Amino acid sequence: TCRPASACAKTQWGANMKDITWPSGLPQMPQRSGYLRGTANNSIRMQPDNGRSKTRRVSSANSSSLNVTYLLHEDYKSELGYVADQKLIFDDFYDLVDTSLSFWLPDPEKPERYISVKIKGSNETTGVEIKPFAFRVWSVTLQLEVWPHAFKPRS
């Protein structure tokens, strides 16, 4: 495990900081419960001096929101037989991306591709909720902003 997480950026999560990918040691698909995808209002309404109000589209590049929940195991055994602490992997990954960097996430609706997302954060919240789920299992819920028309195939 790389500490600090930024030391892993070039080797573990992508070729450079602009190509960060969701770690393969974490679940690749979210839980069905808690999954929610929505779109932002992409219209603007104006009221002329007389007549009905007019509505128009603001942009063809409208971002959407995505809420996903993953269960992370502290003693996850991979298909290759190694044991990994998924909570630690997530903590390192979050230290890297925080709420400022976009990353490629496996698309929950089309598993053959990645979508470009960013963790939503504000001054009041981080966009990440971590809570115990069971013994050595953590529930992690992410509030994400999905960039429009930004996807790439999974290889």
What does this structure look like?
The strands form three sheets. Strands 1, 4, 7, 8, 9 and 10 form a six-stranded antiparallel sheet that branches. Helix content is 8%, strand content 40%. A hairpin with a 5-residue loop joins β5 (76-77) and β6 (83-84). Mean pLDDT is 81; it is low at 1-15. The chain is built from one helix and ten strands.
The biggest beta sheet is recorded as: 6 strands, antiparallel
SSE pattern: EEEEEEHEEEE
Overall mean pLDDT: 81
Number of helices: 1
The tally of strands reads: 10
Q: Kindly name the structural category.
A: mainly beta
- Give the strand content: 35-45%
3D shape: elongated
N- to C-terminal separation? 24 Å
CA radius of gyration: 18 Å
Share in helix:
under 10%
List low-pLDDT spans.
Answer: 1-15
Structural descriptors:
155 residues; mainly beta; six-stranded antiparallel beta sheet; two-stranded antiparallel ribbon; 1 helix; 10 strands; elongated; disordered N terminus
